[in-house]
Amino acid sequence: MVKQEALKNHLDALRNSIPELKGVLLASNEGLPVAHSLSNGTDPNRVAAMAAACTSLGRRISESIATGALCEVSVRGDDGVLFVYSAGPKAVLAVMGPMGSNAGLIHLEARGIAKEIGEMF
User: Which CATH number applies to 2-120: 3.30.450.30, 3.40.50.2300, 3.40.30.10, 3.90.1300.10?
Assistant: First the structure.
């Protein structure tokens, strides 16, 4: 229970530092939700599966073009952005924001949180 609470605290800290975020989710590399803070009834199972798929594809691309270990993947649509960060060898951190979000601030905060979460495992 202590680890679950620590994970939730990390996600809450990220949401609190960037209030406009639509959601934050931690998932296993297999696409299962571990912890989340999502708004608007977003399905955590669906987001976890998509985040894991993004990182899986990103890892394959990264390996094939020899850019080293995957750190993050970004997806931008008409109405928002999704950033997926590697959180150690077993997990991914997905951060969703509206269009116009401050990507620099999101990266600054989320990269640190992803690293801390990765060290927990």
Answer: 3.30.450.30
